[in-house]
Design brief:
- Helix 2 packs antiparallel against helix 4.
- The protein has six helices and twelve strands.
- By secondary structure, the protein is an alpha+beta fold.
- The protein folds into two domains: 169 residues, Roll (Thiol Ester Dehydrase, Chain A), CATH 3.10.129; 126 residues, Roll (Thiol Ester Dehydrase, Chain A), CATH 3.10.129.10.
- Strands 1, 2, 3, 4, 5, 6, 7, 8, 9, 10, 11 and 12 form a twelve-stranded mixed beta sheet that branches.
- One of its GO terms (biological process) is fatty acid biosynthetic process.
- One of its GO terms (molecular function) is fatty acid synthase activity.
- This is MaoC/PaaZ C-terminal domain-containing protein.
- InterPro entries: Fatty_acid_synthase, HotDog_dom_sf, MaoC-like_dom.
- Pfam families: MaoC_dehydratas.
Length: 295
Amino acid sequence: MPLQFDLNTRPAILPLYFRALTARKPGSFSGDAEQVLASVTLHNQRIDRVLLRTYREVCGFAPGQHLPATYPFVLAMPLQLKLLVSEAFPFPVLGVVHIGNRITQRRPLRENDVMEIRCDLRPPVAVKRGYEFELITSVRVAGDLVWECVSTLLSRAQHQQRPKSRAGQAGGAPDLSEATSSAWWVPADTGRRYASISGDRNPIHLCAPTAKLFGFPRAIAHGMWTKARCLAALETETFGGVLPDSFTLDVAFIKPVFLPAEVCFQSQQSDDTTVFAVTSAGGKRAHLTGTLVRN
């Protein structure tokens, strides 16, 4: 029987971080590969409009009546962390890497929508680099499914199992031979600003001294900030300020963006599909690749 949580308020972040630092985990998995390990449901979630306005500013979105399609991920972040620190998740949370994220928006979410948010933790799958697992988040309004997200994460735990692969992840080098491009400057405080609205205060994102404790020379940008910044750029530069009502936004996180940094954003549209990428200023290092597909 999967572990289940039913909540009416968002869980406090600090106790979850304390548990992430102190919880003992077995570091291996041998259970049912098909059964959901744990789930959490948050009822009657309403939008904090001040926080939403700050999110738009930090990620580059223009003001509007609809939520950015990446914003519900911020609302779900404490729920995801609650699952990862629970007894159902067999690996240490520190060191888990976010390698892919796919969001499907079925219709735009409005600022006055009252949401039910659910997160499911899927079982790990043994791959060459360790174990991959998925956190599946859904948002319902008045019982209707309006938004879904699949986050693919990697734990580098060792195993002796035969490696498998998951289908449906964005990746590889997209065809950007006719792409438009723009340069972004990503300030040193980007990680701290995004952490203040998302609650994701992982030390690797905050400043160089805390990042160095975990082996990074400087702080790195949150992957979901980079994805949100891409969506904001697509909205203004590719879609003339109006995104499709229904679309799937799929990205692969490849190399971290060390802060501060100048990066290059490229996008190319063809029929219902737009491919895009974020690279280093010279184009030698790929940070993120992705697609936006109109549904």
